[in-house]
Structure formats: C-alpha cells, structure tokens
Amino acid sequence: MKAVWFETFGNANDVLIYGDQPTPTPAPGEVLVKLAYAGVNPSDVKKRAGAFPNLLDAGLVIPNSDGAGKIVAAGEGVAESRVGETVFVYQGQYGRQLGTTAEYIAINSMRAPKLPDHIDPAIGACIGIPIMTAHRCVFADGDVKDLTLLITGGAGRVGYYAIQWAKNAGAKVIATASNDTDRDLCLTLGADAVVNHRDTDWGTQVLEQTYGQKVDRVVDVEFGANLSEVLKCIRIGGTIATYSSTQVAAPQLPFRDMMFMDLTVRMVIVYAMPETAKTQAVADTFNALDKGWMRHRIAHRVPMNQPALAHELIEQGGFGGCVVIKIDESNGDQ
C-alpha cells in the first residue's frame, strides 16, 4: 500500500517519506479500513517533531490519528456485516505505530464507528480530535442547559465545534475571537456575544456582556496565557476545561486565589478520555451528523504524495478549519 511514515524526528520536509509499506491484516477484534482521508492535528505534528522521544523505539511511525474511509475486511470476532460500512477512525496512532496516513489501517473495531451515509469522509476525518475534544470540554461536568459558557478561541478547530455543542444543548455562550471575521463566524455559529482576547482586560469585557453575571464554565484553548483574565469572569465553583497551553507551556497557578474560588481545572485530551465519554461523544456526534445541524470547515485538502505540506500548514497556522490529507486520489485542492 502507499503510505507516509517517518523513521527519525525532525522537520516535516526532512523526515516524512512517501512510498510503499505492507498492507496490514486485521487481527481478532479489528477491521481493515481503506482510508479516504486522514486528519492532521497539532498532536500529530508534535509527535513527528520529537515530543515523545521513545515513539520510534518500536520502529517507523505512520503518522496521524484521525481518518475516515470504508471497512473492507473484518477480523475474527467482528461481524461480517460491518464490511462495506463508511466509518471514521480515531486513535489511529495512539499507543501504536501505524496511523492513518496510508491507504489502509487495521484497527480495533470500536475505533472505527459508522458514519451516516450522506457524510463526506473528509468531515469524518475531523471527528476524532476536534469534535470529540469539544464534546468532552463542554459536557464532561454535566448538562449545560441554561448555564453560561465562555469559549476562548471560538473560531479555532475545537472552539468552532464547542460553540455548536453548547448552543445545541441550551447554553448561553460568550466566545473570544481576535478579529472581525472570526467574531462574525462565532456569532453565526450561535455565540450570544464575542469579545476580543487580544484586548487588555478582556475578562472584564466578558462580564459586561453578561451584565455582571460570572460564567459557569470555560472551554479554554490557551490555559496559561488566558488564566488571569478567566479568573476575573468565572464564578465560585466554576470549571475550566482546557485542551491546550501552547503559549505558556508551564503555567504558574495562583493557587490560593483559585482554591478560595473552589475552581475545578479539567485537562482534556481525547486519548485519555474514559471509554464511557468516548462512547457518548461518538453517539452524540453520529446523531448531530445524521440530523444535519452541525457545521464544518475543511480548510485544506492536501494530496498524500506531498507529505510535508499538511504538517507545515498546521505549524504555520493563520487559518480556520481542519487540514485533511486526501488518501484515495493523488491530488488535493489545498
């Protein structure tokens, strides 16, 4: 099969190889998926760059954990009726070497849930990390109906879906965005108000939008950089669900202040979510896709034979939407 892999860490253009690898065979409990798209996320890029030094100890790595395609074979113990299903794949390269940037992947059947028949597989490749992370951040601490949620970076890959999950569940949403285009997008998605997180004292601006009522929960894209402003506008007993702290990688916490606010800080990553949470996220996502209320953004569709481009796009940033690698054809539309 055609695949992309790396055998050393480094820059994408230096270490990613496009060529031929053996086609896997599904083991008991696994399905063989012929992939149409792979999704690329920051965690995939960091792994390739060397964030996990032991990753290559077991051999080469086919990168990327998200994807979508069609089941073409079932291993022992998996119902033959699954063959032919269009599915999305998540955790393709978590705790294992061979991810989704390949024509085929053999993976545990539970990591290949069915997609509604009318859904573009490119959208399926955006579920595993962006949509499921957003679901966990919004719902990990219970029902959000009638609560007020602050979603920072509302136009980002996760924030985009978090706004939709929260609004569909009956929450009031205050989002942050850094420019007029992103502000308008957040409002279109359902945000009740938007403040600019590049402004000084934006936490006070959140309170102006809520008429002084502090928010119940925060879904946060930059925990370390945003914490001081978040503490201005979150209520006593509130929860911060955060999935990233890139700008301030090792935040210092004002422990006493946070303790007296009885705050909960929840760190979210799909790989470590409880299986019950994954199952619920998958079920709710299928329902949302089936009913058609969830919106999506594919920013770039990159051909597999240009293996560095997708990773470089994630590193460069500056755009909204997901980056997917087109597996089933030699060209993409970028």
UniProtKB/TrEMBL annotation:
SMART domains: PKS_ER
Domain of life of the source: Bacteria
Molecular function (Gene Ontology), one example: oxidoreductase activity
Alphabetized UniProt keyword annotations: NADP
SUPFAM superfamilies documented for this protein: GroES-like (SSF50129), NAD(P)-binding Rossmann-fold domains (SSF51735)
Coiled-coil regions listed: none
The protein's name in its UniProt record: Oxidoreductase, zinc-binding dehydrogenase family protein
Organism of origin: Aequoribacter fuscus
